[in-house]
């Protein structure tokens, strides 16, 4: 068995047996009544787990119940915790000596989320990533690749979730050579655009596929610089793959549409659009959402998604924009099994995507801007008004 797909055991098999069963499902996009029933049972277990260990979550359960989201399950309790809550509060459901990993969000300004993971939580999330990569045929232990990582070069004090994830993704195919775009200088990180261009030129002349991972903005800046320098387009070897995530962070003023972005990658690097995939995830909710070949972010079997009205937090029907609400019972270290993200999104049924997957999928529309004196709901409502 591939080591990334190896079994991982929950902290308490008696208390979390259904969580174990759900996270052991090998098909990342399984659907049906059995999967839905297992998800509901697992959520009941994880809610009980956190209520017994976190006074914060126990108090949430005593408040007036939230309006259930049909896409999650009418009988599933999902007390709504904003992702921003974890920027100012450390709420653990395990003793600190059981914290296996401490990661932070990658925001460019303001307070970062501080998230803590026991061994089960982070290993089960990694296994989800591995199963999705395996589903798409991206685990190739016998085929070395060259990596260009648009993420932070490792440093002793670096705890960013994005850096941790990108380096983990390098385990799915052996590395012939690795280049980091954001180089560690000793006092921080700097974007080495010329180093990226030199790496791409070198990789284009080799026979190994290239895997480009990380922040999309910096890949786009590389392509822009290549064009400005009058460089001829490159043709990276067949089997090359682009898997991006983390958003444009402090560069949203230069963000372009995804179709235009993929077209630029194809034009400048020769990688077909179906091999340019975006992802969605966060340090507060580590379940991976990876685009299919038609560029839809399908919800895997281990989680459920809903969209909630920014003003009332009521669940919205398919196609309506609102706050993205993500639910998964996998996490035992922190009561983050039901998180309302700061992202605006719309949810769609699986049959609206032409790919073979039948799970729901969502489109991220942007982030709700906030300030010290403006609520998330007001900011989101204003942002969506501008979209109409």
Automatic annotation (TrEMBL):
Q: Give one GO term, molecular function aspect.
A: ligase activity
> Acyl-protein synthetase LuxE domain location, by residue?
75-382
Which segments does the entry list as coiled coil? none
Q: Which Pfam families match?
A: LuxE
The record's section on Gene3D superfamilies has: N-terminal domain of ligase-like
Q: Which InterPro entries match?
A: ANL_N_sf (IPR042099), LuxE (IPR007534)
Question: Could you tell me the keywords of this UniProt record?
Answer: Ligase
Q: What is this protein called?
A: Long-chain-fatty-acid--CoA ligase
The organism is Streptomyces graminearus
